[in-house]
Amino acid sequence: MTGYPWSEIASPEQQALPRGVPKRWNDYPRLGSVVVYSAAMSVAAAIRKAGSTDTEKLIAAMQDLPVETPFGKIRFRALDHQSTMGAYVGRLAKKDGKGVMVDWVYREGLTYLPPDEEVKRMRPAD
Predict the structure, then answer these.
(1) What are all long-range contacts of 119-123, with beta carbons under 8 Å and residues at least 24 apart?
(2) Spatial contact of 76 and 63, defined as CB atoms under 8 Å apart
(3) d(Cα 61, Cα 72) in Å, to the nearest integer?
(4) pLDDT tier at 106 (50, 70, 90 boundaries)?
(5) What angle do CA 74, 39, 47 make, to 5 degrees?
(6) For residue 25, what are the CA distances in angstroms to 21, 57, 84?
(7) What is the pTM of this model?
(8) pLDDT band for position 7 (cuts 50, 70, 90)
(9) Do residues 49 and 64 touch, judged by C-beta distance below 8 A?
(10) Are residues 85 and 69 in contact, defined by beta-carbon separation less than 8 angstroms?
(11) CA distances for 21 relative to 7, 13, 15, 45, 65, angstroms
């Protein structure tokens, strides 16, 4: 299963994730917290790089766009704009009455994306 073993990670990137929302709801950050935060950071990075919110400029800005996320630096591939963000994979267990991830590892997203040549075969030419 995929998830977010937030309580076991103390990297600087993890500390970038705002803790205000979980505190407001008296809860801990979830995988969705990271995804939403990373999406917002991606949009902000694209607008900064494009210098505009013009659609064509944003499309161009997304090509090989690097973005810092709580999971580390990702980029959006130029060929298909797919994110290289990975995922934590592990098992579920119960600790102190709460669900936690155990035996987890981080899997780099780029490893699981199809290679450029395969993407070119799957996508029609513009």
Answers:
(1) 119/79, 119/80, 120/79, 123/80
(2) yes
(3) 20
(4) very high
(5) 90
(6) 6, 38, 30
(7) 0.84
(8) confident
(9) no
(10) yes
(11) 16, 17, 14, 22, 27
